[in-house]
């Protein structure tokens, strides 16, 4: 599995695995907003932002989201909230926009997938969503801008578990952007940058290839609230305790009579 942290840090993974039924595959439509606004990291959010991190454009094959190159992604690890988390979206910082000969950025064929990566570096999607043709904002070439993606349907995530998200383009002759990366792979300890295998592309290919860096990203998470039992649940529990007490009293009474 693609990770840099020690196994001890994630020992709770086995005990919390599959608390939630988040393994169902479904397709939806994500929405996209493009601007220069850095995401705000709130509460349970997970992010590696440019501040305090040395960034670079890296190598084309490692970070170019384009129609004839690899899908690229980043792993991340959720926190310890016992009831898990809800993921509503993610953001990626582009280093450089790639435009076609007509000067247009074809945005209608992006695909976002969120899932898990196993010990053999095989990515299994929990959700796959396409980004429709319409988006908000204008991308300026060679200007750092954020690409914010909101899932069409939120996704439940287990606590203390490593997940991954992947971005790619699924139609030939469509152009994209260069995903900004850190210069080293120790800036974010809960995951790692990765790419899928060699062409043919336009589809996600396994297994994943580990990259020696992190991507600049933000995952929008909210901690799920603890489950509060209904009053009827307390009533049933009380009835059960009374029943056990009554049974014990009767047993003692029979023993005394004998």
Content-based structural category: mainly beta
- Overall number of structural domains: 2
Contiguous low-pLDDT stretches (5 residues minimum) are 5-26, 99-104
Give the biggest sheet.
7 strands, mixed
Radius of gyration: 24 Å
> What is the helix/strand order?
HEEEEHEEEEEEEEEEEEH
Distance between the termini: 66 Å
What is the overall number of helices?
A: 3
Kindly state the percentage of residues in helix: 10-25%
Overall mean pLDDT score?
76
Strand order of the largest sheet: 1-9-8-11-6-14-15
Shape, please?
A: elongated
Classify the beta-strand content into a percent band: 25-35%
Count the strands?
Answer: 16
Write the layout of secondary structure elements.
Blueprint: H1 13-16, E1 27-29, E2 31-35, E3 46-48, E4 55-56, H2 60-63, E5 64-65, E6 72-77, E7 85-97, E8 110-117, E9 123-130, E10 145-157, E11 162-169, E12 177-179, E13 181-182, E14 193-195, E15 209-210, E16 217-223, H3 231-257
Parallel strand pairs: 1-9
Antiparallel strand pairs: 2-10, 3-16, 4-13, 5-12, 6-11, 6-14, 7-10, 7-12, 7-16, 8-9, 8-11, 14-15
Explain this structure to me?
- With 258 residues, this protein is mainly beta.
- It folds into two domains: 7-227, no CATH class; 229-258.
- Helices cover 14% and strands 34% of the residues.
- The strands form three sheets. A seven-stranded mixed beta sheet has the order 1-9-8-11-6-14-15, with no helix packed on it. Strands 2, 3, 5, 7, 10, 12 and 16 form a seven-stranded antiparallel beta sheet that branches. A two-stranded antiparallel ribbon has the order 4-13.
- The longest helix has 27 residues, at 231-257.
- It is elongated.
- The relative contact order is 0.28.
């Amino acid at each position: 599995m693609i990770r840099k942290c020690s196994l001890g840090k994630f020992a709770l993974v086995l005990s919390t695995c599959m608390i939630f039924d988040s393994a169902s595959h479904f397709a939806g439509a994500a929405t996209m907003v493009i601007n220069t606004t850095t995401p705000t990291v709130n509460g349970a959010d997970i992010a590696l932002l440019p501040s305090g991190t040395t960034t670079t454009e890296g190598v084309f094959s490692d970070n170019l989201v384009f129609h004839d190159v690899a899908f690229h992604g980043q792993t991340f690890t959720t926190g310890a909230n016992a009831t898990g988390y809800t993921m509503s979206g993610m953001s990626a910082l582009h280093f450089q926009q790639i435009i076609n000969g007509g000067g247009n950025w074809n945005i209608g064929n992006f695909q976002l997938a969120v899932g898990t990566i196993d010990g053999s570096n095989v990515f299994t999607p929990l959700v796959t969503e396409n980004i429709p043709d319409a988006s908000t904002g204008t991308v300026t070439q060679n200007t750092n801008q954020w690409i914010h993606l909101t899932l069409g349907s939120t996704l439940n995530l287990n606590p203390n578990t490593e997940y991954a998200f992947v971005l790619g383009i699924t139609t030939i002759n469509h152009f994209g952007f260069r995903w900004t990366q850190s210069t080293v792979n120790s800036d974010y300890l809960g995951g790692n940058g990765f790419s899928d295998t060699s062409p043919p592309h336009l589809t996600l290919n396994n297994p994943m290839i580990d990259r020696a860096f992190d991507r600049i990203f933000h995952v929008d998470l909210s901690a799920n609230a603890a489950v509060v039992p209904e009053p009827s649940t307390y009533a049933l529990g009380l009835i059960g305790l009374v029943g056990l007490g009554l049974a014990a009293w009767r047993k003692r009474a029979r023993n005394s009579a004998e």
